[in-house]
Write a structure and sequence with these properties.
The protein is mainly beta. Helices cover 9% and strands 31% of the residues. It has two domains: 1-34, no CATH class; 40-168, Sandwich (Immunoglobulin-like), CATH 2.60.40.1090. The protein has one helix and eight strands. The longest helix has 16 residues, at 2-17. It is elongated. The protein starts with a helix and ends with a strand.
Length: 169
């Protein structure tokens, strides 16, 4: 608010300096106000790393998403199916990470530590629900739980995927 007032004051001062010589100026105070609208910003999706996984085993890991929404703003966090899901026959139902040779492993995001509630994007492409909450005005951190299915992994490969988190409000 102070910044807006300073800007309005600067505009008035400049206007009075540019009047013709000898003219009488009458500075008028113009009230300036601003009410922030509802919205969300500062979304951070930290990487999910399953670490080193031996062939024939699976793994679990978690990460966080942080979002800041104005107080009272309802929002949803949606996680898409990832970059490789559409080319994989297991979708919907699992996401896919691939290595440089095109070998793949299945994994998923969940809303709960018990790995029961899939986390998706409310879209039939992945057939899983988003996470909903209401903004507090401060940063809110939500845990994303991940599960890597038992795989026949190439021990010298690195498997990657890129999933997109979207905040809808």
């Amino acid at each position: 608010m102070k910044l807006l007032r300073l800007m309005a004051g600067a505009a008035l001062a400049a206007a009075s300096l540019t009047t013709a010589a000898g003219a009488v100026t009458h500075p008028v105070a113009i009230p300036v106000s601003m009410t922030p609208g509802t919205g969300c910003a500062n979304v951070t999706f930290n990487p999910l790393n399953f670490g080193t996984v031996a062939s024939g085993t699976g793994a679990a890991a978690n990460t966080t998403i942080s979002v800041t929404c104005t107080s009272g703003t309802p929002y949803k966090i949606l996680l898409n199916a990832g970059a490789y899901c559409s080319a994989h026959t297991g979708c919907p139902g699992s996401r896919v990470a691939v290595d440089g040779n095109g070998d793949q492993v299945d994994y998923n995001f969940y809303q709960d530590a018990a790995l029961q509630t899939l986390w998706g994007d409310d879209d039939a492409t992945f057939n899983a629900a988003s996470e909903s909450d209401t903004g507090t005005g401060g940063a809110q951190t939500v845990t994303v739980y991940g599960e890597l299915a038992t795989c026949s992994c190439n021990p010298s490969a690195t498997y990657t995927d890129t999933a997109t988190a979207t905040v809808s409000f």
